[in-house]
Specification:
heterodimer; A: about 725 residues; Aldehyde Oxidoreductase, domain 4; 18 helices; about 25% helix; globular; B: about 160 residues; 5 helices
Chain lengths: ~725, ~160
């Protein structure tokens, strides 16, 4: 365990930052509680400025408690989980809690989905807000009843004084609490351990469920404004292409069309690309008019999958650039009893959110821009829009709609800046709704890569050397977005002799972070290769992996104990070592990313080259679980996502993505989904996010099970390349 | 453009559409019933599922013209008070992640239970393969359909 991990492990707030409570009384009589931070890190910037709370809890006189959810919700469950933390510490009944979605607002601090960071970032603020509010209410009650505060208890929104039998609802103390001196955070009782929890760790259904099951407006495409127009934005299929000319007059004459114009755009592949906007009274009218659109595109690049593969083959034979070298790999390989060698390849894949990109905008005469959109990082979107339209960020208001699937796609805001630009031209509310084809062809793909591995085995059955040549994508000498691999990634630090070399293929298409960026792709390569090495060593897969995790060389790349703990958990649940029966196989994998540790064991049944994933057992250590439902849902969904993605690929020709819709990029359907059994290790660490960590080890666990059942080692994705059909 | 009278959620609604306009866009853009979602436009994802005389259909590939006289039920009109066993089960099993596909999933599940009150995994899989869930809520969909079947049986098959 390194120093940072140790510091976290106490579950106490980081003392370098100092938390403050702010309390006030609203005109409605509601008590408003917020939390702000200052401290060493911020002493320069924030000192002396008006302090603003970054979280609101409103306790209303009618007994309702309104908790503001500051982060966007994309299905990762934060809109339910965060308010649960507040409710737990405030001791209110969950059924009296209402959750309100915050708009983009600088007072809230970080408002983004990415890196599974929502949970660790929010944990302290949320606990302090809840516990702080309760502290003030209890102080007020103690004063009013002239009793000791230690004699008071609180439960379900009621404060009681057992010795006298008195009790009263929170509502009776709101005025008084607003006048109380705010406590130091060190005086608050913050819960850290599952055995202290009442609500936390329970299975709590999502707060938006009532709206979802009745089809109430929630999503970006559900926004409706008075006199709203609909738009599509047609870009060059070959990324970066520019418009030379378009038959705008013919388009403008089509039924129901109000505007057709060219947008010059910029070279920024993540910004406003050049294109043609078509705007009309209904989306369908726009869609029909688009059929008649003719554009003369100026193509600026012609990347193709064929060329990528040729370059990869050429580079594989070259030395590459050494990123890390521990010990002497070449010597150790020479000295090894056995050398195992294999290469793995995965293709580009799409985010394929079920809700295609959409944004609604209204540009006011005053220069104000209002926007409603699904975004994983609205502050980044605001910056991009402000720069592109050359307007002050303060003029831009962004309302966060529920996101119909994030997975990293909505960290890019091309659709939002397009909507903003179109809105300024048409001066009416306008909804830009991409088609599925637009979505697939203009995605920010997870980059492909080739991994060439060599492992040396000693007579003790342990890896003595690991040589890794990573062939990935770059532009101007650096990896493109989503294409990098940390030199510190395991098995670095788990073998005495280790080398990572990297080669870059020139890439001019759009790439980006895709759920658990990198990990969700390369974990499959590593953990499948470990399977091969264990077999060569004639060792049991579990024993081989536990052995690998038993000793670090220098700084460990991950917490060995916690990782091994999840592996034990999954293996025990699956009954590792048993005979799964004819044509069946078990496979396993471990991983660590974004703060959480996950291992899976998968069982598959083979019928020739057709495999059915029957069941997956998961061992998960993400610290104490906040919402059992949300946490399990993330694990189940990630396993299905892994299974989908293992069957898919995007290919390029002439710089354009060749796939366009679900007929040639079909996601997994329900008949392919396995049963999933999740076991949580409630370790003594702060809670971490779970939107990403469960996906990486799912792919190799299933692939290793396929090998056990069929004898086919999958070294290329999509799996049909290995003639495996799911 | 032609005028078409559709019977949506029990109400006669007049829409003015071109002959190719799919029901999906008549619902969303003309009638402002946005619960029915666009996902692919080619009948492959099921986000746009509505019930047509009780049968689940893909509204993105079905011209609105020609549906006159048929009962169209969208998710907004499907037991708006929330009493249907499928909706109850969907909430209790907490099926949704992002939720975008779920209106379509619910309508397909309800239609399945109308025909088969006690479906096993295979029957569920068969009836629900046309509804993609990108978030991968399939294990929960299976559980929720079974729970809904149980609730429905408790009510004596009435819903
Ligand atoms: S939108 Fe109709 S099936 Fe996909
Ligand atoms: S819940 Fe997100 S697509 Fe189904």
């Amino acid at each position: 365990m390194n120093r940072d991990q140790k510091k976290q492990s106490t579950g106490e707030p980081d003392l370098k930052r100092r938390a403050f409570l702010q309390v006030s009384l609203a005109a409605s009589g509601a008590l408003i509680v917020g939390v702000g931070w200052s401290g060493l890190a911020m002493a320069g910037e924030g000192a002396g400025q008006t302090w603003a709370p970054n979280l609101y809890v409103r306790i209303q006189p009618d007994g309702r408690v309104v908790i503001v959810s500051k982060n966007p919700e994309a299905g990762q469950g934060v809109k339910t989980a965060f308010p649960m933390v507040v409710a737990e510490h405030l001791e209110v009944d969950w059924k009296n809690v209402e959750v309100e979605q915050a708009p983009l607002d600088d007072r809230y601090g970080r408002q983004a989905i990415g890196g599974s960071r929502g949970t660790p970032d929010g944990w302290d603020d949320l606990r302090i807000a809840g516990a702080g509010a309760l502290f003030l209410l209890k102080q007020t009650a103690a004063l009013q009843w002239t009793v000791g505060v230690d004699e008071l208890t609180a439960q379900a929104g009621v404060i009681s004084h057992p010795p006298s039998g008195r009790s009263a609802p929170f509502a009776d103390f709101l005025d008084g609490a607003a006048e109380m001196p705010v406590p130091e955070v060190s005086m608050l009782k913050l819960k850290t351990r599952p055995e202290q929890f009442g609500l936390l760790g329970k299975f709590v259904p999502g707060v938006d469920n009532p709206a979802i099951i009745h089809g109430k407006p929630l999503f970006g495409c559900d926004v409706r404004r008075d006199r709203m127009l609909y738009a599509q934005y047609v870009k060059c299929p070959s990324a970066g292409g520019k418009v030379r000319s378009a038959n705008l007059d013919a388009i403008a004459k089509q039924n129901g069309i109000t505007h057709a114009f060219v947008v010059e755009g910029s070279d920024n592949l993540s910004g406003l690309a050049p294109g043609v906007a078509i705007v009309g009274n209904t989306w369908w009218a726009v869609n029909a008019a688009r059929d008649a659109l003719e554009v003369d595109w100026q193509i600026v690049q012609s990347d193709s999958s064929g060329e990528y593969a040729n370059a990869a083959a050429r580079l594989a034979a070259e030395a590459g650039e050494t990123q890390r070298h521990d010990g002497d790999v070449e010597k150790a390989l020479e000295a090894a009893d056995t050398v195992v060698e294999a290469s793995y390849y995965y293709p580009f894949v799409s985010h394929a959110n079920l809700e295609p990109q959409v944004a609604t905008a209204l540009y006011h005469e005053s220069g104000k821009l209002e926007m409603w959109a699904p975004s994983q990082n609205p502050r980044g979107a605001r910056r991009l829009i402000a720069e592109t339209l050359d307007i002050p960020p303060d003029n831009i208001d962004i309302q966060l709609t529920r996101i119909g699937g994030g997975f990293g796609r909505r960290l890019r805001h091309d659709y939002m800046v397009e909507a903003a630009w179109i809105a300024r031209v048409v001066k009416r509310p306008v909804q830009l709704q991409w088609t599925r084809e637009d979505d697939m062809k203009n995605g920010f793909s997870r980059p492909a890569a080739w991994h060439h591995f060599k492992a040396g085995l000693g007579s003790d059955g342990r890896m003595s050397a690991f040589d890794h040549h990573f062939v990935t994508f770059g532009r101007d000498g650096s990896t493109v977005s989503g294409a990098s691999l940390s030199p510190g990634h395991y098995p670095a630090g788990l073998v005495p002799n280790f080398r990572l070399r990297q080669s870059l293929i020139e890439c001019n298409v759009r790439t980006g972070p895709w759920r658990s960026p990198g990990h969700s792709a390369y974990c499959w390569a590593y953990q499948s290769f470990f399977d091969e090495v264990a077999l060569a060593a004639e060792r049991d897969q579990l024993a081989f992996r536990l052995d690998l995790l038993s000793k670090a060389y220098g700084e460990p790349p991950l917490d060995l104990e916690r990782t091994a703990g999840t592996l034990h958990k999954a293996a025990e649940a699956a009954g590792w070592g048993r005979d799964p029966g004819a044509n069946r196989g078990l496979g396993m994998a471990f991983h660590f990313d974004h703060g959480s540790f996950v291992s899976h064991v998968a069982q598959v049944k083979a019928d020739g080259n057709r495999v059915k994933v029957e069941k997956v057992w998961s061992g998960v250590d993400c610290g104490p679980v906040i919402n059992l439902s949300g946490a399990r849902n993330q694990v189940e969904g990630a396993i299905v996502d892994a299974l989908s993605t293992a069957q898919l690929e995007l290919t390029f020709d002439g710089g354009a993505i060749e796939q366009s819709n679900f007929h040639d990029y079909m996601l997994a359907t329900i008949d392919q989904a396995p049963e999933v059994e999740v076991h949580f290790i409630q370790s003594d660490f702060p809670p971490m996010g779970l939107g990403e960590p469960p996906i990486a080890p799912a792919t190799p666990a299933i692939a290793n099970a396929v090998f056990a059942a069929t004898g086919v080692r999958i070294r290329e994705q999509p799996w049909r390349r290995a003639n495996i059909v799911i | 453009m032609s005028k078409v009278t559709l019977k949506v959620n029990g109400e006669e609604r007049m829409v003015e559409v071109t002959s190719e306009t799919p029901l999906l866009w008549a619902l969303r853009d003309t009638l402002n019933l946005v619960g029915t979602k666009y996902g692919c436009g080619i009948g492959l994802c099921g986000s746009c599922t509505v019930l047509l005389d009780g049968e689940p259909v893909r509204s993105c590939t079905m011209p609105a013209e020609g549906l006159e006289g048929m009962e169209i039920t969208t998710i907004e009109g499907f037991h708006p008070e929330g009493g249907h066993p499928v909706q109850r089960a969907w909430n209790e099993e907490d099926v949704a992640q992002c939720g975008y596909c779920q209106g379509g999933q619910i309508l397909s599940a309800a239609a399945l239970l109308d025909k088969n009150p006690d479906p096993d995994d295979q029957a569920i899989d068969q009836a629900m393969t046309g509804n993609i869930c990108r978030c991968g809520t399939y294990p929960r969909i299976r559980k929720a359909v079974k729970l809904a079947a149980h609730y429905k049986a408790e009510q004596g098959g009435e819903s």
